[in-house]
Amino acid sequence: MRFQNTILVLFFSLFISTLCKNDDESAAVFISSLSSSSGHLTFALSASDPTVSQDVFFHISGPSSYSYIGIGTGTVMQGGLMFVMYSNATGDGITLSSRIATGNNEPVFSPTLDIDILPGSNTSNGLMTVNARCKNCLSWSSGALNLSDTVYPWNYALGPNTAQNVKLTSNSPSACLEMHVEYGLFTLDMTHLTMGAGALPTSFTSPIGSRASGSPVLTSNFPTIIHAVLATIPLVLFLPTGVIFLRIFPGSVRWHWVSQTVSSVIGLFGAAVGFYLSTWFNKSKSFSSGHQIIGYIICAGMIVQWFLGFWQHRIYKQKQSPTKYGLIHRYLGHFVFVLAIIDGGVGLSWSYTASPVIIGYSVAVGVVAIVHFSLVAWKRWEKQKPHGVGIFEIKTQQNSPEADRNL
Ligand code: HEM
Ligand code: HEM
Ligand SMILES: *[C@@H]1O[C@H](CO)[C@@H](O)[C@H](O)[C@H]1NC(C)=O
Ligand SMILES: *[C@@H]1O[C@H](CO)[C@@H](O)[C@H](O)[C@H]1NC(C)=O
Ligand SMILES: *[C@@H]1O[C@H](CO)[C@@H](O)[C@H](O)[C@H]1NC(C)=O
């Protein structure tokens, strides 16, 4: 009798647990509120019984104000499988891109995964949603998704959602991504996942078998900002100011020399940060895009300028007469200045900066350029007037007649 009871109980609990598996617990669901905006992120995952099929089904949804929503395996970017979703070119559908990153840098599209987008995937009412089936995902990389792990690590990342950024809308699975503004880690109880033939999770309204690991982390792309500030300001503001030091006030070769040296060193450092930044993005890691090539010319120009200026001044002191180096120095200097203005604008649009920022930049550098070239032109005109006595004339002649003729 006792034995029979035990059998009955065992049978029942087995029956109930099977029932539960097929109903509520056939998927794991992670839901998180976000630090960088209101709204929340939902990720639901289910898989087939591995003996039946290797397919994996998932659902991702979150605010469409983000450029992209990425879900990845692991606790770090490196080596994990990532599903990155963004709006399609017309902004009403979605593009889903499977990617792998080699480290803390832009993940690369991995076309080896065969993913079907299922109905209910779109961008509407402020949400991006994707339902998908990843065919043979379980066998994609042996052990990559471990269905017997109760604390399997996952992560999510959210693309820029600020007004300074252009929102990504693209049909291409290898579209360029900018760095995330927020990421977070969580674990899923993968033993919740399996169901016979496999199907989309049916309910995503409450969390099942998931746990956040720590709080969401806000990230800043400070290397980009450091690059932009240190490359742009010395080149488009300090270098022309150094020309004013030489030709207008106080008309001193030494002031010019010190100012141009400091600006060039800072500018070259800013460009060096650009080299580091180039390793982050797929568009820049071959070091051959327009922005980078113009950047190389500017860097070379700055270095050549320094030696030309130095050489010309040395010869001038010996011969007391203008040299051709001085002439080249003057024209190359203005050329580098104009090139830097252009490259700053190219850099901004290359990194998907919103047009108000680009317009602001253009106005600011336009004003600097107009003031600079007006002062220079006016100075030359004053000098060319027969016996012209301009307000700055006396000072310049006292301090450095060389400056007037040559630099
Ligand atoms: C252009 C694209 C991306 C770039 C340049 C990038 C770059 C970076 C950088 C520099 C960090 C370190 C941040 C810090 O320590 O504050 C980081 C961390 C992280 N990123 Fe990305 N990321 C990109 C896309 C993604 C995507 C699509 C995902 C996920 C689907 C992701 C997930 C993570 C995670 C989980 C961390 C924390 C890892 C750790 O603590 O080492 N990232 N990323
Ligand atoms: C020397 C003159 C240069 C100037 C004035 C300049 C300026 C800029 C500016 C204003 C941005 C936009 C940053 C932002 O959106 O916040 C930018 C981005 C960038 N620049 Fe430069 N840059 C220069 C040289 C270089 C060089 C030599 C390289 C590398 C070889 C480089 C690589 C980059 C990269 C990778 C980005 C980031 C793109 C992104 O965030 O998507 N730059 N640059
Ligand atoms: C974007 O997706 C929507 C909805 O699926 C579709 O109607 C539209 O044609 C797609 N746009 C492009 C450019 O593919
Ligand atoms: C868009 O997707 C949501 C969520 O899957 C769904 O409820 C809605 O009906 C879809 N809208 C359209 C127009 O397909
Ligand atoms: C899968 O997870 C289980 C439980 O955590 C662990 O014992 C096993 O070694 C894992 N398998 C692989 C291939 O990593």
| Unreliable residue runs | 12-24, 388-407
Total count of domains:
2
Please identify, by name, the CATH architecture of the largest domain.
Answer: Sandwich
- Rounded to the nearest angstrom, the radius of gyration is 31 Å
Bound molecules: protoporphyrin IX containing FE, 2-acetamido-2-deoxy-beta-D-glucopyranose
Mean pLDDT over all positions: 88
State the order of secondary-structure elements, H for helix, E for strand. Answer: HEEEEEEEEEEEEEHHHHHHH
Please bin the fraction of helical residues: 40-55%
Kindly report the spatial arrangement of strands forming the biggest sheet: 7-6-5-4-10-11-13
CATH class identity of the largest domain: Mainly Beta
The termini sit apart by: 109 Å
Plain-language structure description:
The structure is a single chain. With 407 residues, this protein is α+β, with helices and mostly antiparallel strands. It folds into 2 domains: 196 residues, Immunoglobulin-like (Sandwich); 184 residues, Four Helix Bundle (Hemerythrin (Met), subunit A). 42% of the residues lie in helices and 22% in strands. The chain has a 7-stranded antiparallel β-sheet with strand order 7-6-5-4-10-11-13, with no helix packed on it. Strand 1 and strand 2 form a beta hairpin. Helix 2 runs antiparallel to helix 5, helix 4 runs antiparallel to helix 5 and helix 5 packs antiparallel against helix 6. The site of one 2-acetamido-2-deoxy-beta-D-glucopyranose has 7 residues, from loops. Keywords: Electron transport, Membrane, Signal, Transmembrane, Transmembrane helix, Transport. InterPro entries: Cellobiose_DH-like_cyt, Cyt_b561/ferric_Rdtase_TM, DOMON_domain. This is Cytochrome b561 domain-containing protein.
